[in-house]
Write a structure and sequence with these properties.
single chain; 10 helices; about 35% helix; globular; about 250 residues; binds zinc ion; eight-stranded mixed sheet; alpha/beta; Rossmann fold
């Protein structure tokens, strides 16, 4: 690390669990962020400021004025522009020393798998079940850690599925595909702006902890937030021995 980097990351380096070696590790790491919206904004901003050396951020959508209430990567000037491109502009200003790779197109499974294969951690900041199930399958097949988050109305949830560990449950253990619930979308139901910030920051914290192997991750736990009453609940996630994804040897 150069002198200016030692200064930039000094408050991390002061933490004994991170120290110089941990910060070096962050600088050499690669996070894949799927979605540059409400969750992807705080996730990628904290990853960038923390010095994650390489961030790939994917979003095929363009910025709409109705996004600006909570998608803090974007501003008035970004309206009509691709979200991943707009994200890079913001993130590069937060930390010019890291590499940001925006992916502007809608990815098929093969393309997503290729990107995921190069990442240390996959962070699901998507807003639909199709992507969540696809990322779960990909992360399981590649044995990569997946940090999952979701937020709608006043309710949010976070969990970690770490497929480097054989006993990790997966997203489908929690929400079997057969029980496909009606998809709630922010466009139809609304979402409380700071909620996506809280959930996204928690996802960023989990991703950084996974890279550094600090403390206990949310593996096997689903954290649920009711931001209206500001109450958190933890639900234990049991690995489903009949799960059609992770029970396959
Ligand atoms: Zn499973």
């Amino acid at each position: 690390m150069k002198d200016n980097q030692l200064l930039r990351y000094s408050r991390h380096i002061l933490l004994p669990e991170i120290d110089y070696a941990g910060q070096e590790k962050l600088l050499k790491s690669h996070c894949l962020v799927i979605g540059a919206g409400g969750l992807g904004s705080p996730v990628s901003i904290y990853l960038a400021s923390s010095g994650i050396g390489k961030i790939t951020i994917c979003d095929f959508d363009d910025v709409d004025i109705s996004n600006l209430q909570r998608q803090i990567l974007h501003n008035d000037e970004s309206v009509g522009k691709n979200k991943a491109v707009s994200a890079r502009k913001f993130l590069q200003r937060v930390n010019p020393e890291i590499n940001i790779y925006p992916i502007e197109k809608k990815l098929n499974t093969t393309e997503m798998k290729k990107l995921a294969n190069n990442a240390d951690v996959i962070i699901d900041c998507s807003d639909n079940f199709e992507t969540r199930y696809a990322l779960n399958r990909i992360a399981f097949n590649l044995k990569k850690p997946l940090v999952s988050g979701a937020a709608i109305k006043y309710d949010g949830q976070i969990s970690v599925f770490d497929f480097r560990k054989n006993d990790s449950p997966c997203y489908e253990c929690l929400f079997p595909d057969s029980e496909f619930e009606e998809e709630l979308r922010c466009a139809d139901h609304g979402v409380f702006s700071p909620l996506v910030g809280i959930i996204g920051c928690t996802q960023a914290a989990e991703a950084i902890k996974i890279i550094l192997d600090i403390g206990s991750s949310l593996i096997g736990r689903l954290l649920l937030l009711d931001s209206k009453d500001m109450t958190w609940k933890t639900i234990k996630i049991i690995k489903d021995k009949d799960c059609k994804i992770c029970s396959i040897k």
